[in-house]
Amino acid sequence: MNRTVSIIIPVCDGKEYLHDMLGCVLNQSFYDYELIIIDDGSTDGSGELLDEFAVKHPQIKVFHQQRAGVSAARNKGLSAAMGKYIFFWDCDDRVSVDILEKMVSNAEMHIKSLTVCGIKWSFCETGKEQSVLPNCGEEPVSHFPLLYEDGLLSSLCNKIFSRSIIEKYKLKFDNDISMGEDLLFVLSYIRHISTFTFINEALYSYHIRGNKGLHVSFHENRFYGIARMYVQLKQLCDERGCNEDLLIIIKRKIIEEYSLALSDCVHPDSRFPMKKKLSEMSKALKSIEYRQTIDELDGASILPVLKELMRIKSALLLYIYFRISDFRKKQRR
Questions:
Q1: Could you read off the pLDDT of 280-301 as tens digits, one per residue?
Q2: Which of 140, 200, 236, 311 shows the greatest Cβ crowding within 10 Å of its Cβ?
Q3: Of the candidates 33, 35, 38, which has an alpha carbon nearest to the alpha carbon of residue 84?
Q4: pTM above the 0.70 mark?
């Protein structure tokens, strides 16, 4: 039986969050959906719990695989999806009870558009919340840098995708990218639509626990992912005839991505030895993509001292700077 909506959720050791997220889904005001959950090699009992839910709720389909990463899990979900529309959600977040109803209704009224809703950031340790809301109405795809600047473009979770577009253009997630794969998928998708339409409500809630969202573990292809993001963003700018101001927004955001990646590379939790860290940093600082974005450092949200070090392009000086910064943070705790 085909459903209107397929919701795809990858799970990797997320047992403690599953009851809350699945409760949000099962209590939706819109009922015509299938929930496809990919157990990506969980070892905490998530797979067994998901199987129990699937027995009780026929709209839930559970697939188990050896750990292959979130992109592979989502691709597996796409291959199983039968819905007219696709949602991609995370197992440790929350959604409003009417997100399906409102997003599907909007998508049905704007079939050549991508519907985007607002996002709420909920910081579990402090109880603070922060919402990012789009303006109401419709915007041409050429304005995508503005969404990127506001933090509404990169996420998959605040969008409803057409399965027919995904299948027609054979869109998939890149298994070789561990950072920025969501944005790359969104960029490949919006090449095939004409406009965005917005819902001025934070219907999706990211729950930030501990260091989630503040520190990202560094992966060897992190800088490669940023370079890929920049190339695709710039290419889409050229295709859509974006003006120079919009291109500057992209360059500023990318240089901020480089700043975060450099910091995460040096972070004590990074598994690489010092020599490897310096090698990865040096390659990034010498890359064409870095050189093309460095001219927008002045307008980026980066500390002045760090801006100067990034302009010098010395991996060793940046390494020392970030280690001193980490030491000072520990001293203040």
A1: 999 999 999 999 999 899 899 9
A2: 236
A3: 33
A4: yes
